[in-house]
Design a protein that fits this description.
Blueprint lengths: L1 H15 L13 H6 L2 H4 L2 E5 L4 E5 L4 E5 L4 E5 L11 E8 L5 H15 L4 E11 L2 E12 L2 E12 L2 E10 L3 H12 L3 E2 L1
Antiparallel strand pairs: 1-2, 2-10, 3-4, 4-5, 5-9, 6-7, 7-8, 8-9
Length: 190
């Protein structure tokens, strides 16, 4: 069963790297971004009793669910100038009796083995969000010629794991950092 966790994390990272030619809405201009307040970042609330999770997400973003694989996708808007859709994935799985430290280490090792050009930009760390400890790491990598940055957050409750992957192009990741963190900081696990 342990061997199923790493492929699931790999699948999540690959899915988060999808490009799209289908446009869903218009991205805010830099002037419009200045008008966005913290309240607007938290305007939408997602709650799923079956997965025991709830969080806030930015007004212009959308949620897609894969209930069979227990994956939630939080997708940024795109426009005709942006062929990459920034996103967050939340994968809900099993810890198989591993501690948070063991689970995080095993998955980090698996991710690092999957990409030839993976470079940690921050050492693994730990943060507390709503009284829950998350292990975190940030790295750059190349996928299908796209230079990407990913920030992973991993936590668990009882035997259930929650892996949050925030992905964007390396040159735009900082533009999305506030939106990513607004979602991460609002995650509640019931």
């Amino acid at each position: 069963m342990k061997n199923l966790i790493a492929p699931l994390i790999f699948l999540t990272i690959l899915i988060s790297c999808e490009t799209t030619s289908e446009k869903k809405s218009i991205r805010y201009s830099s002037e419009d971004k200045e008008l966005i307040t913290n309240n607007e970042l938290h305007e939408n609330i997602y709650s799923n009793d079956a997965l025991n999770i709830s969080f806030n997400y930015p007004k212009s973003w959308e949620i897609q669910t894969d209930t069979m694989n227990k994956i939630l996708y939080i997708l940024s808007p795109t426009d005709s100038n942006d062929l990459f859709q920034e996103m967050m994935n939340i994968v809900i799985g099993e810890t198989n009796g591993l501690s948070l430290k063991e689970f995080f280490s095993m998955n980090l090792n698996a991710v690092e083995e999957m990409f030839d050009k993976l470079d940690r930009t921050e050492d693994p760390g730990e943060i507390t969000i709503i009284n829950r400890v998350f292990k975190t790491v940030k790295f750059n990598y190349i996928f299908e010629s796209y230079p990407l940055t990913a920030n992973l957050f991993v936590t668990h409750k009882d035997e259930t794991s929650y892996v949050v992957n925030c992905s964007a192009l390396q040159n735009t990741f900082d533009e999305y950092q506030d939106q990513f963190m607004s979602v991460v900081n609002s995650i509640e696990i019931n």
